[in-house]
Amino acid sequence: MHPSEYGVMSRCERDHWWYSGLHSLVGEILCRKMSHMQSPMILDAGCGTGGFLQKYQPEFECLIGMEPSDNAYTYLMKSDVKNLVQGDMLRIPFEAGSMDAIVSMDVLGVFQNAEISCAIREIVNALKHDGHLILNLPAYSWLMSGHDQFVGNKTRFTATAVLDELKRAGLIVEYAGYRNTILFPVALVVRLTGRFMSSLFKRQVEPTESDVKMPHEWINRILARILLFENGLICRGWRFCFGLSVFIVAHKPDPNRDRLTESVIVSGTQSI
Question: Counting beta carbons within 10 angstroms of the beta carbon of residue 266, is it exposed (0 to 12), middle (13 to 18) or buried (19 or more)?
Fold first, then answer.
């Protein structure tokens, strides 16, 4: 990620519609999955500048932030977050079977090919049996843009490809679908228009910033409400077939159980 992007992230994470919608969804699912536990061990793998930690460490006292970037750590040290570890998803610095849950939001996209498989194996190794994984990932390789280049994304995903990867790693997927669906058409027009203009003038402009900007307050409020509406549907089990992000909830099976059934939500309103 470009060093300047961490400053943008730090300023926007608390209130920006994209971050607030994603953090609220992940936090809601964590609350449901961890409700029967006292002080569950939860890892935010690739915590950035700590927006999710600031929001949910009061709820989960053992929520740990892991971040490899020195630039991000500069902002983390200025914040009030705690339980920080500098570490890489390709070498997660925790004992095997130590985490009740791992969340990773838009991080796996910085890897490619075998690195993605390696990171998922590291996640599986760190999870306890019956531990949960929540993933949010950028969708569709054909949406790759200057924004991805600026923030360091090398891979965009489909739900099917991620599902297959997690199954090979031995996880049982409870939910596999997309989010940011209502806003998808708008984003598609913006991306394709930018691509067309670059092609028209036959030049590839080096990106100087990401797409993350704080919009006007009323626009931000409307976009945030749209995501909260989608969040409610996802938590009730609705599976969107397209969107700007792939969203996955999975768990590591317990080998002591006699019967395990995969429970991918295909349609309907079964809650996660």
Answer: exposed
Confidence of residue 266 (pLDDT cuts 50, 70, 90): very low
**Residue 205 φ/ψ region, left for φ over 0, alpha for ψ in the -120 to 50 degree band, beta for the rest:** beta
How big is the chain by its Cα radius of gyration, in Å?
A: 18
Q: With CA atoms as reference, report the closest residue to 116 among 179, 173, 56, 165.
A: 165
| Pairwise CA distance, residues 157 & 189, whole Å | 19
Q: Which residue has the tokens 């600026």?
A: 150
Tens-digit pLDDT profile for residues 199-254: 665 555 566 556 667 889 999 999 999 999 999 999 999 999 999 999 999 999 98
Nearest CA-CA partner of 82 in 108, 104, 103, 54: 54
Domains of the chain (ranges, CATH numbers): 3-251 (3.40.50.150)
* CA separation for the pair 84, 75 (Å, rounded): 12
- Location of structure tokens 């090398």: 154
The Cα–Cα gap between 107 and 137 comes to: 7
Q: Is the pTM of this model over 0.85?
A: yes
Task: Give pLDDT tens digits for 153-186.
Answer: 899 999 999 999 999 999 999 999 999 999 999 8
128, 28, 36, 120: CA torsion to nearest 10? -10
**Three-state DSSP class for residue 228:** helix
